[in-house]
Every structure is written in C-alpha cells, then in structure tokens.
Amino acid sequence: MKIVVADRDGVAHELDAVEGWRVMEIVRAHGVKLGAECGGSSVCGECRVRVAPEWQNKLHEPRDEELDRLDEHLAGDDERLSCQLIFSEELNGLTLSLPDAA
Ligand code: FES
C-alpha cells in the first residue's frame, strides 16, 4: 500500500504505507521532511499536510482539538494534521502535499 506525498519542492514521493500507522509517522519514516515536535499530540501543528481534493471526503472528520490547531495555524480548508490520520487499506493511494510553512 502506498501514499504519495509532494514535498515542499514539489517533488512527489511514493511511500510504502503500513496499516495502523499515523500518516505523519509514515512520511517521516521515509525521510520526507515534516515537523512533528509534539510527537503526534495535536499540539505543534507542524505535521500539517494538504489533502488532494479526491481524498478529502474519504478521511474521517477532524476532532475539535485538530480543528483548533488548524485554525491557529490559519490552515487552508484542504489541510489536516497528519498525526491524526491513521493509515488504513481504504487510504491506499492517499495523495498529499506539504504546505509552504508548517
Ligand atoms: S505532530 Fe504535532 S500536531 Fe501533529
């Protein structure tokens, strides 16, 4: 299973993905630069990713904590915290890009 992530230089990386892992962990495990200072507790907001339009309604709704953090960072409507996205079979092929500043 795969996720596809365009880094901040616009280079697309096809990454092997493991069910049950956070998307943030998958991206970082493959060496794509993505901040995650809080370790996945929805505090730092550094792990923000932009979700491709065709995938947005396949993700679960963000919880209040995630929404608060996205608001604080003036995130676009297409952004999510990748630490709050748990990879599953249904997300095979998930396509993301990294926002300019995270
Ligand atoms: S890793 Fe800090 S908010 Fe996701």
From TrEMBL:
GO terms for cellular component: mitochondrion. Residues 1-102 form the 2Fe-2S ferredoxin-type domain. The keyword Iron applies. InterPro entries: 2Fe-2S_ferredoxin-like_sf, 2Fe-2S_ferredoxin-type, Adrenodoxin-like, Beta-grasp_dom_sf. This is 2Fe-2S ferredoxin-type domain-containing protein. GO terms for biological process: P450-containing electron transport chain. The lineage of its organism: Eukaryota, Sar, Alveolata, Dinophyceae, Suessiales. PANTHER family: FERREDOXIN/ADRENODOXIN, TRANSFER PROTEIN, PUTATIVE-RELATED. The keyword Repeat does not apply. One of its GO terms (molecular function) is electron transfer activity. Keywords: 2Fe-2S, Iron, Iron-sulfur, Metal-binding. It comes from Effrenium voratum. It holds the Pfam family Fer2.
